Amino acid sequence: RKSEALLLRLQQTNRKMLEESTRAQSKSTLWTQERSKRLTASEFGRIIRLRHTTSRENVVKSLLYSDFKGNKATRY
After folding, report:
1. Are residues 6 and 25 in the same domain?
2. Per the structure, how many domains does the chain have?
3. pLDDT tens digits, residue range 53-75?
4. What value, to the nearest 5°, has the Cα angle with vertex 19 and ends 30 and 33?
5. Is the pTM of this model over 0.85?
6. Environment class of residue 47 by beta-carbon count within 10 Å: exposed (0-12), middle (13-18) or buried (19+)?
7. Are 30 and 21 in contact (CB under 8 A)?
8. Angle at CA 32, nearest 5°, toward 48 and 5?
9. Cα torsion for 74, 64, 67, 28, to the nearest 10°?
10. Domain ranges, residue 23
11. Which class for 46: exposed (0-12), middle (13-18), buried (19 or more C-beta within 10 A)?
C-alpha cells in the first residue's frame, strides 16, 4: 500500500510538472514530444469506428509514423 501511495504521488507530481511546463503548447517542444506519445480523442474515434475490412496494420503505421504537422485549418 505504501508503494502504491508513493507511485500515485509521483504520478500526480509528474502530471503537474508536465502541465506547468507545457502551457505554451504550440511553442513548447516538450508539449509536442509528449503529445506524440499519446492517443488523441480524434485518433481514438478513428480506431473505435474501424470497419472489419480495414487493415489494422495500416492504421497503426499511420498513427505511429505520420508526419502530419498541421494545415491551414489546424493552425491558429
Report:
1. yes
2. 2
3. 999 999 999 988 877 777 777 76
4. 20
5. no
6. middle
7. yes
8. 75
9. 60
10. 1-36
11. middle
